[in-house]
Write a structure and sequence with these properties.
Blueprint lengths: L1 H21 L2 E5 L7 E3 H8 L13 E5 L4 H11 L3 H13 L8 E3 L2 H10 L3 E6 L9 E6 L1
Parallel strand pairs: 2-6, 3-4, 3-5
Antiparallel strand pairs: 1-5, 1-6
């Protein structure tokens, strides 16, 4: 009985953790990016540069936060399905293998990400939920 209860609790926690993490960030895009929502898998593909263009053909330009920031940890866990350190290792392997694609630009704060996204056509980034969003960027919902 204890084992069964323990497994049930572990199961619930395993699925609750990504949902809680998703609440810690907001995905923002440049106004040139169409749509009010984005599938989690599509967003991951853009940040891992497995997809380099939006549906309309324009270049997708992702921007990350510092690898040590809490918002990056939350985004990486929830969207990429890996810790931020694993994402850094992913890019190191890609570059070592000669992949011509480069990792997303890295900015040090919510304000820097907002400035980059607002000034870069096709840009997508993420900021903490508490960040004030100016009209030059648009929040999009992440859906499964």
């Amino acid at each position: 009985m204890r084992l069964r209860v323990g497994l049930c609790v572990a199961f619930v926690l395993a699925f609750a953790a990504p949902l809680a993490a998703a609440a810690d960030f907001v995905v923002i895009v440049h106004p040139s990016v169409a749509g009010a929502q984005m599938r989690r898998s599509d967003l991951a593909a853009v940040f891992l540069r497995q997809a380099t263009r939006w549906g309309g053909g324009k270049p997708a330009v992702p921007v990350d936060q510092s690898g040590t920031s809490a918002v990056r940890r939350s985004f990486s866990d929830s969207v990429l399905g890996m810790p931020a350190a694993a994402a850094v290792q992913y890019w190191q392997k890609q570059m070592f293998a000669g992949n011509p694609l480069r990792p997303p630009a890295v900015k040090g704060s919510d304000a820097e990400v907002i400035a980059f996204v607002s000034q870069t056509e096709g840009a997508v980034g993420y900021v903490s939920k508490a960040a004030a969003l100016p009209p030059e960027v648009r929040a999009v919902a992440v859906v499964d």
